[in-house]
Amino acid sequence: xxxxxxxxxxxxxxxxxxxxxxxxxxxxxxxxxxxxxxxxxxxxxxxxxxxxxxxxxxxxxxxxxxxxxxxxxxxxxxxxxxxxxxxxxxxxxxxxxxxxxxxxxxxxxxxxxxxxxxxx
Length: 120
Fold this sequence. Notes:
Elements: H1 2-13, E1 16-23, E2 29-34, E3 41-42, E4 44-50, E5 54-63, E6 68-77, E7 81-82, E8 93-103, E9 113-119
């Protein structure tokens, strides 16, 4: 019985949590995904793109203490592609919001959807 409880806790601690999604527009644009403190602190982030293709320029991570990380992504994401693992500065951090800067110029006929995942 104790082993089962430890196993369940271990799985929850090491799982990825979906923090939010945005469907992008057909132009140079930016979108914000709000993340609340009740979701806790995160040690890693990952961005996944589905549906269409986009040219991601950068993302700005705003932490709970007001500090910001500007992360250059400069990558053309096709549908079903993802970023490398992103380590927030300072270890486990509470994230207030994440802003993405991108364009979709001549990349796709379908609108892409950007998903953000965090690891506790």
